[in-house]
Amino acid sequence: MRKVTAGLFSSVDGVVEDPFRWQFDSFDEELGAGMGQMMARIDAGLLGRVGYQQWADYWPKADTDADFAGFINPLPKYVASRTLSGGLEWQNARLIEGPLEDFVADLKKGDGGEIGVFSSISLVRQLLFAGLLDTLMLIVHPVIAGSGRRLFNDGDPLTRLELQSSEQTSKGNLILRYGLRGD
Hints:
The chain has helices spanning about 30-40, 50-60, 65-70, 100-110, 120-130; strands at about 5-10, 40-50, 75-80, 95, 115-120, 135-140, 160-170, 175-180. It is globular, with a radius of gyration of 16 Å. Strand 7 (about 160-170) and strand 8 (about 175-180) form a beta hairpin. The protein is about 25% helix and about 25% strand. The protein has an 8-stranded mixed beta sheet with strand order 4-3-2-5-1-6-8-7. It is α/β, with parallel strands linked by helices and about 180 residues long. It has one domain: 3-Layer(aba) Sandwich (Dihydrofolate Reductase, subunit A). It contains 5 helices and 8 strands, in the order βαβααββαβαβββ.
């Protein structure tokens, strides 16, 4: 069975929105290598509407020699949206038809590598609380962002996680991988 993996950059105070504001001065070689290892395992991606629209406007025009552009542009991409319709213009992107949870559960049953969740806080939350997210990777940067959207909110359901691995990089980033605890 395929696994669904999400990776989010996070500040120490839990902000995951707009990491470009605060992550780059602590991005280091170890973090880049870890991202490369994760990308090597992924052969399909899930995006929400907002992330899709932002990325579809940027990545197809990005330098194709750049590591991430060379990875994300040809990747099969499945987009969860209640408002988009018709065909999607970005290479290998298509809308998810029917309930997200059913689609992802069926996708997990197929052959292939890992399924990555990209650029969508709400999609990560929905898959985590539905029990469909196998790995939640939080890359905690040594910064307090002060404001911005956080991954978890007051009133979220009690959800037990199990630490799968942890690593500290030379610039003080923590790479924490969690899975749902099975009890």
